[in-house]
Specification:
heterodimer; A: 776 residues; alpha+beta; 6-stranded antiparallel beta sheet; 5-stranded antiparallel beta sheet; B: alpha+beta; 10-stranded antiparallel beta sheet; 27% helix; globular
């Protein structure tokens, strides 16, 4: 490559980057289309788009709303203060609404809007009572209710209190009213309930900050008050705070470390800048192309993809070390084959993952591969043309360092093979894996505890377990839901400690509603006359009451969902399924389950689902765990495949010396895994992603170690590359976020192993057939 | 001179007269009897019916604790109202929202003006031997259920009268009231 064509290519690359920047700017004109929801990373479950829809619908309440429970000595004053402070946030457009006063949730009286349907809605108990003897046994309780001081009797519209009985049978919210405040009575205390609806996304930083500040101020003013928080916004805020905190501690420490080391070795701040240019160019290239290709980006892709691009730091360091030491003798052509091989092998490792069915991995792989290519092009095309301050100190340091690190003996391939065998045996025997959801949960324990308390105090489910029920039409669906409800009722009577929410409990099938009306007609025969007479009411009341039965419409599901009570059950209704399953036109709904969570309960629930066609039992927690496991197994498989392909490429180029290139990356991987196996650290998706980084940096080190076996510049570059990567990624081992901690831990052990292994496999003399520069 | 004396005494008496008997005094007067028993007659007049629902029985009131409503006619039933719950002797499920009605009922019987003031405008009339308190709901939502409530009595509450916007009326007469000696 002559200077002129290289110059032309450099300008062309600048043009491409400029285009990328413009394109990226255009794509980001409405903000970054980023996914934060973990499930967006997982494969679109082709068998279960309906399950995904149900998941989303059941989780929505948790995302857009938050709930505060407050206990204080002077509860009324404290709640008033907090309520007013939150209302200020509504005025500032941070929150859409806040409910905390007694009347905030007092919808119109159910008697007003349920009245017309009451003659067709009977509880099972009342059905049995009327079937037994026409309902004579219901007269006495009705009389008692008519004369209770707390009743609001209506002898014409509802002499027996049908609606009261039915409403009492409906699941009610534990939230009641006391002292004019929304209140939950639990654990012997009155807890005020404050429910907020967010005006924006729970990840919106100004919103998080405003809410946090309001609550902090409140707690400072009311130190005795106990405040329990529940809602995604608090977890998102805690995550953001933690990230900021770690950025200022771990991040600052690693940045400082890198600056000090590079400054010490090269004695020039410019090298530091030149280190950043390829990384920035690579990130820009990757961001534009990945976003263009996928349309959206997951935040995890961004985080991990950006760290994988970190491998590109190798290219810069090798090039600059060589330049500083060889000065005018520097020729890009000499380094190019190794740089290219390093790039190709890393890209192979990532490209392999782009072939997996996991959208998350595909995105990450594409991002990392594009990033590496971009960074590599920048290094090759631009760096040699940037001026470099070459300090003689660097060459002296390289020389001294090289001598210092001469191993006493060298590794024999047979020993390497035996060691590999031992390590593999350890891994096979002891390595465990962990795909639990907690890995993804960076929330502090205190917040998780609050969440549990809130659920305990409110008996509120999170929609984590449910039956997904389908049928051809609404009536068939209601019938099916009713049969499952009956099976659940039997199981609960048999000692199963669960509770459930089902639409069928509120909306009986049309046939059952008709049968109920017939029952009420029987009840309005002689039992009604007895009731009217004993209550001392005129006989005309009975006729007036009977006349109401002629205007008794059926309650449809659509009617019910439009009522304030039914609105609370909207999340159970999935509606038409045609859009999700073109072959299965119909309707679907969920029955949400809560209560005990153990193997016996799960088995029983599965059995109930199996007892009825087109019913599926879904456990979100174990489902996400399964998907994470699948993600992990896929990555592992593709990593192994990539290692095989890389080995073949290396054997083709290095023949009998190939093992020297292979030992640093593969050996480090095995050491990490064996250490995990021995210390009981389970394998998960995040330490596997860390292994990819170790493989990439290890491979580069292996290649340069063999190609430039007699050059001190290569060893200095390898040292610097592992040290800076250790600082950049290994420090993450101290993060409190499980995902970053595992990534960091892997890098810490893996990169240190790479660095430790390299000298032992260095060829004793120059490679046969390779022309070496005599200049050292 | 006599005029001046008169004016002076009037000026002296005016604020005193305004302070003569206020809600705090009434609260203290009622609180002097921690527990009592008596009989009641409850009459409910429904706007769209000519006749009324009338019931009679005994009651027992323990301040701050509970009121027990013992219906004798036309049905027998024991209803116990506490700030937390309604307990029926028959074990019937109480209608949803009944707790709030029970709470209001308890607050009225206790003369807990402080709690009632958060939801009602209160107006006291009369003196310690014959007083009357009129309650009007503040919030529109409550006004849809209750138009006004009147309590009157002397040493005890003798009479409760509640009107709803639909024209229904609940009248409770308490009589033969006696303090309970053994109560705490």
């Amino acid at each position: 490559m002559n200077v002129r064509s290289q110059q032309a290519l450099g300008w062309a690359w600048l043009g491409i980057l400029a285009l990328c920047a413009v394109w990226l700017g255009w794509m980001l004109r409405h903000g970054l289309p980023a996914d934060t929801d973990l499930t967006a990373l997982l494969p679109a479950d082709r068998q279960a788009p309906l399950v995904e829809r149900a998941d989303r619908q059941l989780g929505r309440g948790f995302e857009n709303r938050f709930l505060l429970l407050l206990r204080a000595d002077d509860r009324v004053a404290a709640t008033r203060a907090l309520g007013k402070a939150l209302e200020q946030l509504v005025e500032d457009d941070r929150l859409a609404s806040v409910d905390w006063r007694e009347l905030d949730l007092a919808d119109a009286d159910p008697h007003d809007w349920m009245g017309q349907w009451r003659y067709r809605l009977l509880t099972p108990e009342w059905q049995r009572a009327i079937d037994r003897d026409g309902g004579e046994a219901l007269v006495e309780p009705a009389l008692r209710a008519l004369f209770s001081p707390t009743a609001r009797p209506d002898p014409v519209a509802d002499p027996f209190g049908l609606l009261d009985a039915w409403l009492a049978y409906q699941p009610h919210s534990p939230i009641g009213a006391a002292d004019g405040l929304l209140t939950v009575k639990a654990e012997g205390h009155d807890w005020s309930v404050l429910i907020g609806e967010l005006a924006g996304s729970p990840y919106d930083l100004p919103l998080q900050r405003a809410l946090h500040a309001t609550l902090e101020r409140f707690q400072q003013a009311h130190p005795d008050a106990e405040l329990v928080r529940s809602g995604l916004v608090f977890h998102a805020a805690a995550g953001a705070r933690q990230a900021r905190h770690e950025m200022s501690t771990i991040g600052a420490a690693s940045l400082l470390g890198v600056v000090v080391i590079i400054g010490f070795v090269f004695r020039s701040p410019r090298v530091l800048l030149q280190l950043m240019v390829p990384l920035l160019a690579g990130s820009l290239f990757a961001l534009a192309l990945t976003l263009g290709l996928f349309g959206r980006l997951h935040l995890l892709t961004l985080a991990f993809g950006a760290s994988l691009i970190g491998i590109a730091i190798d290219y810069v360091l090798h090039l600059q070390c060589d330049r500083v030491i060889h000065g005018r003798g520097f020729r890009l052509r000499r380094l190019l084959p190794s740089l290219t091989l390093g790039l190709i092998s890393s890209v192979i490792a990532y490209a392999a993952q782009a072939l997996t069915p996991m959208p998350g991995l595909r995105q990450m792989a594409a991002f990392a591969a594009f990033g590496l290519v971009g960074a590599w092009l920048t290094v090759v095309l631009w760096l040699p043309r940037l001026r470099l301050h070459a300090s003689p100190f660097t060459a002296r340091l390289a020389e001294r360092w090289w001598r210092l690190c001469q191993p006493r003996w060298r590794l024999h391939p047979v020993v390497a093979l035996i060691a590999a065998g031992v390590l593999i045996a350890i891994c096979a025997a002891r390595l465990t894996s962990d795909d639990s959801l907690e890995l993804l949960n960076p929330s502090p324990a205190e917040l998780m505890h609050d969440e549990q308390r809130a659920q305990q105090l409110l008996h509120r489910d999170t929609g984590n377990r449910y039956f997904l029920v389908q049928a051809d039409d609404t009536q068939a669906l209601l019938a099916r839901l009713g049969r499952i409800d009956a099976a659940l009722d039997r199981a609960i009577a048999g000692g199963l400690e669960i509770d459930y929410q089902s639409l069928a409990r509120s909306v009986p099938t049309a046939a059952e509603q008709d049968a109920n009306l017939e029952r009420v007609r029987r009840l309005y025969g002689s039992p009604l006359e007895t009731l009217i007479q004993r209550a001392g009411l005129p006989a005309e009341v009975a006729d007036a009451a009977r006349a109401r039965l002629d205007r008794a419409p059926r309650l449809t599901l659509a009617d019910w969902l439009k009522t304030p009570l039914g609105g609370l059950q909207q999340r159970l209704w999935l509606g038409d399924t045609g859009a999700f399953q073109p072959n299965h036109d119909g309707v679907a709904a969920t029955i949400v389950l809560e209560g005990t969570r153990d193997a016996r309960t799960t088995a029983r629930l599965r059995a109930i689902a199996d007892g009825e066609p087109r019913v599926e039992f879904v456990d979100r927690v174990s489902r996400i765990g399964q998907l994470l496991g699948e993600l992990r197994r896929h990555t592992a498989l593709w990593v192994v495949l990539a290692m095989v392909v890389m080995s073949l490429v290396l054997i083709w180029r290095y023949r009998s010396q190939a093992w020297r290139v292979i030992v640093p990356p593969f050996g480090a991987t095995l050491i990490v895994l064996a250490l995990f196996a021995l210390t009981g650290v389970p394998l998960n998706i995040f330490n596997q992603l860390g292994l990819l980084l170790v493989l990439g940096i290890g491979l580069d080190a292996g290649i340069f170690n063999v190609e430039y076996a007699r050059q001190s510049s290569a060893w200095l570059a390898i040292t610097l590359s592992t040290l800076t990567s250790l600082l950049a990624f290994g420090m993450l081992a101290f993060s409190a976020t499980p995902a970053l901690h595992y990534l960091g831990l892997t890098c810490l052990i893996g990169l240190a192993s790479v660095w430790g292994l390299v000298p032992w496999v260095r060829p004793a003399g120059p490679l046969a057939g390779r022309k070496e520069s005599a200049h050292v | 001179m006599p005029l001046r004396t008169l004016l002076a005494s009037l000026l002296l008496w005016l604020p005193l007269a305004a302070h003569a008997f206020d809600l705090d005094d009434l609260h203290r007067q009622l609180a002097a009897t921690p527990s009592l028993t008596g009989r009641f007659e409850q009459q409910r007049q429904l706007a769209d019916l000519d006749s009324s629902l009338t019931s009679r029985g005994k009651f027992r009131f323990e301040r701050g604790e509970r009121v027990v409503w013992q219906l004798e006619s036309p049905v027998e039933e024991r209803i116990e109202l506490t700030p937390e719950a309604i307990v029926n002797g028959s074990g019937d499920a109480s209608p949803p929202g009944g707790e709030q009605v029970a709470q209001l009922f308890l607050q009225l019987l206790e003369g807990d003006w402080q709690a009632l003031e958060s939801r009602f405008e209160l107006a006291l009339d009369g003196d310690r031997d014959a007083w009357q308190v009129a309650l009007t709901p503040k919030e529109p939502a409550l006004r849809e259920r209750i138009e006004n409530i009147t309590l009157d009595g002397g040493r005890y509450i003798d009479h409760l009268d509640m009107h709803t916007p639909t024209g229904d009326r609940l009248e409770v007469r308490l009589f033969d009231q006696q303090p309970l000696a053994d109560a705490p």
